[in-house]
Design brief:
Elements (H helix, E strand, L loop, with lengths): L1 H9 L2 H26 L6 H18 L2 E4 L3 E7 L2 E6 L2 E4 L6 E7 L4 E5 L14 H4 E3 L5 E12 L2 H6 L4 H18 L3 H5 L3 H19 L3 E12 L5 H70 L1 H17 L5 E3 L7 E3 L1 H17 L5 H18 L8
Helix pairs in contact: 6-8, 9-10
Length: about 375
């Protein structure tokens, strides 16, 4: 009795857990045996096979359901051959191995690069010399980097007509680019010809893709860079600076020419107009003199004495009109002329000299008066008037 109590005290919680598990497992096994004995007809091989086959067939049919997202196209192939192209939305097809669906994104913008490895890392380490170095028509080598943006416009042609479409497009782009660069010289490629080269490359790539029926549409072609190789970069920069200096000097010369030539033409036109005006003036004056002489001749023939007298008086009036002398003619004395202007000038000079000198002695003052009187006596000399 005491030994059983000792054995019971030696049992651990782990042995209790195992006993409980065995008890529950035995109860479940008994219930399962009872259910099988009561329903042996349900577990026949034929019925089990039918249930399993139906479940597998239903799962196989359900696997044919697929959904096409917006912007995608589904290309259905039946035993490997093209069957249909499905639009966005839910669809069903015969599951594998009868039919298969390949989903193609027709709105995604895709890129390929020629001459460098990645458009997001435009640096020297990504340059691919085998692709970028090209020969121009003038036998110069330049390094060209080109990026092409494209998208799929026909999913069926994209999948079936061209194998490895992206690689084919890259090789085609490089070939077309080399052909276009080879038709132009280096200066044209590096300066004003970039836009034309891009347009030609895009058109020729699209024509080739259309002939292949590749199902690809070229969206844009960007000439990222075009420059001489690094080995001759310094010499090329010197040549560019020389070309720019040449163009600058040409522009300055043209500006100077555009400034000087109009001035010279204007001066020439002004001189010509002045000469024409002078000629017209002289001709008109000569004609007027001729007409006046003819009229005077007519009057002279009518009355020579009176005409001679009038001509004499007119000539005398013209002669004395420009003099500053006053003629004094009296019946008792001979005619005198007085140079009034010179007398006034001498008088003004004397007054200004007197005002400028601070003090003059009586002898100096008298000497100046004698000089003025002598000057007046010399200039105010008598003259006889003409009869």
């Amino acid at each position: 009795m005491s030994s059983e109590k000792q054995n019971a005290s030696k049992q651990t919680p782990q042995s209790d857990w195992k006993l409980e598990f065995e008890k529950q497992f035995k109860a479940v096994s008994d219930k399962a045996n009872d259910f099988y004995n009561d329903n042996k007809g349900m577990f026949s091989l034929s019925k089990v096979s039918a249930i399993l086959g139906g479940s597998l067939g239903l799962a196989w049919l359900i696997s044919g359901i697929y959904i096409i997202d917006e912007g995608n196209r589904g290309v259905v192939t039946r035993f490997g051959a093209y069957a249909d192209t499905t639009m966005p939305g839910p669809h069903w097809h015969f599951p594998l191995p009868i039919e298969n669906v390949s989903i193609v994104n027709v709105e995604q913008q895709r890129f390929i690069e020629v001459g460098y490895s990645d458009a997001s890392r435009m640096n020297k380490s990504t340059v691919v010399p085998q692709e970028s170095l090209m020969l121009t028509s003038d036998e110069n080598i330049i390094a060209v980097r080109l990026a092409v943006q494209y998208q799929i416009n026909d999913a069926k042609n994209y999948l079936f007509n061209v194998k490895n479409s992206e690689n084919t497009l890259k090789q085609l782009t490089e070939s077309v680019l080399r052909a276009v660069i080879g038709r132009n010289n280096m200066d044209f490629v590096l300066t004003e010809g970039r836009s034309q080269i891009v347009a030609e490359v895009k058109d020729e790539i699209q024509k080739a893709l259309n002939s292949y029926q590749a199902g690809i549409s070229i969206a844009s072609v960007n000439l990222q860079d075009a420059q001489p190789p690094e080995e001759v970069q310094g010499s090329f920069e010197d040549a560019i600076r020389a070309r720019e200096d040449k163009q600058r000097l040409i522009n300055e010369a043209e500006a100077y020419s555009n400034e000087i030539i109009p001035k010279a033409r204007g001066a020439s036109a002004r001189i010509v107009q002045e000469a024409e005006a002078y000629a017209q003036e002289k001709v008109a004056k000569a004609k007027g003199e001729t007409e006046r002489f003819d009229q005077l001749l007519v009057e002279y023939e009518k009355n020579p004495a009176i005409t001679r007298k009038r001509l004499y008086l007119e000539a005398k009036e013209k002669l004395y009109s420009s003099t500053h002398k006053i003629i004094v003619n009296t019946d008792q004395a001979p005619a005198l002329y007085m140079p009034m202007q010179q007398a006034v000038q001498v008088t003004n000079h004397t007054v200004s000299a007197t005002a400028s000198e601070p003090e003059l002695s009586s002898d100096q003052h008298g000497g100046e008066k004698n000089a003025v009187r002598k000057l007046n006596n010399n200039e105010l000399r008598p003259s006889r008037s003409k009869q």
